[in-house]
Amino acid sequence: MKYQYKIILITWLLISLNVIMSFTAIWIFRRTAPAIENITKPHEKIMTTSEKIVSYYALNSKDLEPLREEVNKLQKLLEKSSLNNQKYQLFFDNYQAALTDPKIRKKIIPIILNLRFSVMEEMKLASLKAKQLSKAGAWEIVFMALLIFTIGLFFIKSIKKDLISPLVEISDVLEAVNSGDNIRRCNGKDISFGIKNLFDNLNNLLDNRK
Is residue 101 part of a domain? Predict the structure, then answer.
């Protein structure tokens, strides 16, 4: 019964570790995907909005309302992002005057272009962070796989020592006795107490046959 419980315990342990590894892989994916999405989506909106704003100035449009709408949208997006909003305050203070003043426009257009560059850098950092998370997750899975492999080897060794080898020894002894060898008895080195007790009982049974 002791070995039965041992086999059941190790089997359930291997099953549990496999389940844990599967959930770990899912958790890594679910952790990595939002990390990319949370940075990529808002920054894509910032890029699109900044392009619209630049196009208004490029077309020399005098219609303030559409421009104000896009600028307000950009300001809200920047407030929610990790970018430094203060760097672009000069633009927000002068975007209306830039519609009619070429000198002011010349000053604020580079600010918007610089914003696009900053957004691209943030997206690169997001990609790098995602790669780091993926690598860390991959090593976690490798560790789990090695752990399962090690336990599996221990399990096989334990089964061989406590089950297969004793059965082979018993089979060899019974075959020898049936062939007329009344001296052969079960024995083994470094055997557990349970196996030794089994061998002793079988040997006593064979001795009593004489």
Answer: yes
Long-range contacts at 127-134 (CB < 8 A, ≥ 24 apart): 127/36, 129/35, 129/39, 130/32, 130/35, 130/36, 133/28, 133/31, 133/32, 133/35, 134/28, 134/32
Expressed as residue numbers, the domain containing 124 is 2-145
Could you tell me if residue 208 is inside a domain? no
Per-residue pLDDT, 1:
45
Whether this prediction's pTM lies above 0.85 is answered by no
pLDDT over 70 for what percent of the chain?
83
Tally of domains in the chain:
1
Question: Residue 143 pLDDT more than 80?
Answer: no
Instruction: Classify residue 178: in a domain, yes or no.
Output: no
Domain membership flag for residue 42 = yes
Q: Which residue has the higher pLDDT, 48 or 63?
A: 48
